[in-house]
Structure to design on (280 residues):
């Protein structure tokens, strides 16, 4: 008995039981019951009917559009978001604080406002669209417009996640690496990248999660043409307006499961990277 008591270490901060109970209760009421209701609604469908709904040409195209463009936009934001963060954190230049504030403003900007602004910019008579039209490039009311909107709304997630990590990364590590004769690329690959890689994965996951379910900023610039520029969230709304609730939940459940699987893989990679970095 004495060895058992000694092996149980009491936490310095009290209240574990209470906080755990509140956590489980709150997550159950807000998240788990809602998700359970979503899947229970699909039980109104037979398995054959469920497969027919989610494998319909229109539904498959909408799902491919949402997931494919969300992954592409998150990948682009991963590269350019890192460049933005590096410039803001590592260099002093006029307007640096302003650029930092602009990224923060994106968190508060309503998505519908962003969609209207992007549509006005990239329409054929818009400021940017009129320059692209002679080149045969059409952005508004095409999948390219959806991609632009998803890049716009996802940038702040990569920047907001990676920026604190780079700010905490001591520049003396880079100087020490250079002093030891390492090239700039070697310093990036062996010193900087292992530290920021978990944060990059987190930013990628957040940008992807936001993009795959984005609705407000996309419907204005997408054109919403079935089998052309229709996204899965819009198709779900259409099915709800048609009072086909089980059909809508079937498509939503596919989105939920697919998103969970992708995010699970990303989180496992992040955990592996953190463990590997800790051993170095």
């Amino acid at each position: 008995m004495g060895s058992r008591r000694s092996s149980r270490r009491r936490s310095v901060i009290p209240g574990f039981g209470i906080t755990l109970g509140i956590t489980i209760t709150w997550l159950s009421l807000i998240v788990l019951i809602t998700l359970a209701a979503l899947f229970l609604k699909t039980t109104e469908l037979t398995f054959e009917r469920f497969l027919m709904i989610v494998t319909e040409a229109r539904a498959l195209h909408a799902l491919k559009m949402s997931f494919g463009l969300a992954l592409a936009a998150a990948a682009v934001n991963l590269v350019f978001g890192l460049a933005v963060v590096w410039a803001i954190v590592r260099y002093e230049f006029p307007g640096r604080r302003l650029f930092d504030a602009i990224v923060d403003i994106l968190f508060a900007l309503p998505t519908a406002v962003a969609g209207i602004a992007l549509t006005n910019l990239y329409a054929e008579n818009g400021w940017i669209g009129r320059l692209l039209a002679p080149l045969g490039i059409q952005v508004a009311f095409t999948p390219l417009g959806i991609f632009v909107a998803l890049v716009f709304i996802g940038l702040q997630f990569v920047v907001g996640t990676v920026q604190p990590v780079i700010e905490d990364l001591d520049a003396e590590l880079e100087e020490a690496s250079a002093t030891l004769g390492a090239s700039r690329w070697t310093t990036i690959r062996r010193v900087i990248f292992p530290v920021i890689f978990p944060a990059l994965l987190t930013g990628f996951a957040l940008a992807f999660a936001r993009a795959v379910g984005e609705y407000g900023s996309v419907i204005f610039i997408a054109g919403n043409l079935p089998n052309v520029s229709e996204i899965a969230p819009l198709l779900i709304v259409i099915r709800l307006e048609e009072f086909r609730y089980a059909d809508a939940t079937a498509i939503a459940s596919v989105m939920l499961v697919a998103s969970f699987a992708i995010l699970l893989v990303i989180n496992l990679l992040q955990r592996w990277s953190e463990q590997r970095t800790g051993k170095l």
